[in-house]
Design goal:
Blueprint: H1 16-36, E1 41-48, E2 53-61, H2 64-67, E3 71-73, H3 77-85, E4 89-91, H4 102-108, E5 115-122, E6 125-133, H5 143-162
Antiparallel strand pairs: 1-2, 1-6, 2-3, 4-5, 5-6
Length: about 170
């Protein structure tokens, strides 16, 4: 099935082949982010504005078997806050932060201590959130880690835009 603007014979960004390619690309992004940032887990949550949900689209590390496809209200937890604020968030003591969604952690059986979260922004649209859990233990996140997270978030936003995700 081709999108209206796709060349003949091409599955294109909205067709099945384009979707599968971008799912694989999102998986590669979370794998690389997790490795580069020395994290226990990394995830991309995609925003579905029509249903006001965040959906776990790609996960690497802790909880990766049980969370892909899980949906939650787009106002839930740190990801919901980052989505609404359109700003990154860096927490060194996650358990003491009121935005932490402990219920989600309990679903996967893994409770992180530290978190970096970055909105997936493209132009004036927020397409989702990239979260990195329990990166290298330091007293503060470094400028290099923050820059890397921004680069991975931008790459994920481009992949989602190619897939025809929320406009």
């Amino acid at each position: 099935m081709s999108g209206a603007d796709d060349p003949p014979g091409d599955a294109g960004p909205r067709g099945r082949a384009g979707h599968e390619t971008n799912v694989a690309l999102l998986g590669a992004i979370v794998d690389r982010a997790r490795g580069s940032l020395g994290a226990q887990a990394c995830s991309i949550l995609v925003h579905e504005p029509e249903s006001r949900l965040l959906v776990f689209a790609a996960i690497s590390g802790e909880g990766s078997e049980s969370l892909v496809g899980v949906k939650m209200p787009d106002t839930t937890g740190v990801a919901g806050w980052v989505l609404a604020a359109r700003e990154p968030l860096f927490l060194d003591d996650l358990a003491s932060d009121r935005r932490f969604a402990e219920e989600t952690a309990e679903i996967i059986g893994y409770v992180p201590k530290r978190l970096m979260a970055m909105p997936l922004l493209l132009a004036d649209r927020v397409l989702g959130v990239l979260e990195v859990l329990d990166g290298l233990a330091r007293s503060r996140f470094t400028a290099r880690e923050i820059d890397q997270l921004g680069d991975f978030a931008y790459e994920a936003a481009l992949a989602l835009a190619r897939d025809g995700r929320p406009r």
